[in-house]
Design brief:
The chain is of the alpha/beta class and 491 residues long. The chain has helices spanning 4-13, 65-70, 93-102, 130-151, 163-166, 170-186, 204-216, 218-222, 233-244, 247-250, 322-334, 346-349, 369-381, 436-447, 456-463, 477-480; strands at residues 48-49, 52-54, 89-92, 114-115, 159-160, 193-198, 224-230, 256-260, 274-279, 288-292, 299-306, 312-317, 365-367, 385-392, 406-411, 414-417, 429-431, 451-455, 485-490.
Length: 491
């Protein structure tokens, strides 16, 4: 692997219970992403047989031709009831990522997911400045994890934070103002205010939104229904617990429904107009890896073969499966602007035939095929929805490739990055940036709806009471954090 600490980590991983969450510890909070580092690009060798191109790992040069033709191709859904990590199979990249993150028995989010909660909300108006807030947040992180370790020590615990938790209740109130204003402009009084949230974490956003609506517009509150769609059983239980453990939250019980299922298993037609919240969920959707022949510019789709020893071998196939092929077609047809390519600009592509610059294949491009399928679900089952989505528009120091993910885990409260998404399932966070120019056009093509994209900072400026999160010297963490995030809304 990449460093001695990784060798120590993997010795721990193979005897340690499944990891418990994601996202960064406070030591890296200066930039609003999960913490990570760039690593070297692995050297590659190739072998070709009927369109299959495979990559030998430098430290494990094994020929996989025989295994490739004999091993079955499986999906994350095929493995859903499997308690052991698979061997002697091959999977498309998007299926491997879904299995690694969401398998109910060993997936990253499936058991003991730990989302940082700062306890009492921060009193920003009495904090000196941004660095003072950073130090205070670091102290809260340490206290939070010390309390967890006092009950259940865990050197591989995974923690993540969200703007909802850090800026509670102000961030939730910001979203609530947007929802109520648009509801009253277009739907009130003929329809109820129905809100779906996917990937709700602790349920804090739900509680903050319902508190705000109840306290500011009780008539709208009486007509509000909040429904969480949560794939993780552990998080669904936590959301229900937080909904019922305090007197204020108990008052919302009749307004809330928690649905423990994957959005990709949804089969209920919802005819009523509704708002659909997808806040920081696109980044963990499965992506397909596609690379291009530098001479013909034809795509090749990536996957991973897992051998009998549990080793991973990346391969590329010239036969593109229908989902990835459809995404490439839709993107090409729908894009209103030029989109990036791992082949580079048209002007530079002529150089690819120069002997000194000649490459056989491009670096991989990671395309958001699962996100396109999510848009299909919205279009088919929620035809009257309005999407409110936010996520990272860029991520520094990702693995090599275009739109490539950051892959990391956490060990002894330190972030450990790796160079590939093909890692021991369930122990690593794999998360991608979102190209909002591309996905806005894909969303429009799939749903036929009009959209608006803006930066996270612009959205907060428009809908937040920014005085609530201003420090004594005039700095405002709610504005300055998450600068590499954007919002997509249906209009």
């Amino acid at each position: 692997m990449d460093s001695p600490i990784l060798s120590q980590l993997f010795r721990q991983l193979f005897r340690h219970p499944a990891c418990q969450g994601l996202r960064q510890p406070p030591a890296s909070l200066g930039r609003q992403t999960r913490s990570f580092l760039t690593r070297r690009t692995p050297n590659k060798r190739k072998s070709q047989d009927n369109g299959m191109l495979w990559t030998k790992r430098d430290d494990y040069p094994k020929n996989i031709d025989k295994e490739y033709w004999s091993y079955p191709t499986v999906t994350a859904k095929d493995l859903r009831n499997r308690r052991e990590r698979p061997r002697q199979v091959k999977m498309l990249t998007r299926e491997f990522i879904d299995d690694s993150l969401y398998n109910p028995h060993y997936g990253y989010f499936s058991k003991h997911a730990t989302i940082f909660s700062p306890g009492e909300p921060f009193d920003f108006n009495h904090i000196e400045d941004g660095p003072a807030f950073h130090r205070l947040l670091g102290d809260r992180y340490t206290q939070f994890e010390d309390q967890l370790d006092a009950v259940n020590p865990d050197i591989a615990r995974q923690l993540w934070h969200t703007p909802t938790e850090l800026f509670r209740p102000y961030y939730g109130e910001t979203i609530a103002r947007y929802l109520v204003s648009n509801y009253k402009l277009t739907l009130y009084p003929y329809h109820d205010l129905i809100i779906y949230e996917m990937g709700a974490g602790n349920g804090t956003m739900m509680l903050n939104i319902l508190d705000f609506i109840r306290d500011t517009d009780y008539e709208v509150y009486q007509r509000t229904k909040f429904k969480i769609i949560e794939i993780s059983p552990a998080l669904a239980d936590l959301q229900y617990k937080n909904l019922t453990e305090t007197l204020d939250a108990k008052g919302h019980r009749d307004h809330v429904e928690i649905i423990n299922r994957s959005i990709f298993d949804w089969d209920t037609y919802v005819h009523s107009p509704c708002f659909f919240l997808a806040l920081e969920v696109f980044d963990n959707f499965g992506h397909d890896a596609v690379r291009y022949d530098c001479r013909s510019e034809l795509p090749q789709q990536g996957g991973v073969l897992i051998d009998a020893d549990g080793e991973f071998h990346e391969y590329f196939n010239t036969q593109i499966d229908p989902v990835a092929a459809r995404f490439l077609r839709v993107r090409q047809a729908a894009s209103r602007r030029p989109f990036p390519s791992p082949l580079g600009s048209r002007a530079l592509r002529s150089l690819r035939f120069a002997p000194s610059l000649r490459k056989v294949h491009s670096l991989p491009e990671y395309i958001p095929t699962r996100l396109m399928q999510f848009f299909d679900v919205l279009n088919q089952y929620f035809p009257a929805h309005r999407l409110v989505a936010s996520d990272f528009s860029s991520l520094p120091d990702a693995v090599p490739g275009l739109n490539a993910p950051v892959v990391q885990t956490r060990y002894q409260r330190q972030t450990v990055p790796v160079t590939t998404p093909f890692v021991h399932q369930g122990y690593f966070d794999i998360f991608f940036p979102t190209d909002f120019n591309v996905i806005e056009d894909v969303y429009r093509a799939v749903t036929g709806k009009l959209t608006q994209v803006m930066t996270h900072e612009d959205f907060v400026h428009r809908w937040a009471y920014i005085e609530d999160t201003e420090t004594r010297n005039g700095e405002n963490p709610l504005l300055t954090w998450y600068k590499n995030a954007s919002m997509l809304m249906t209009v």
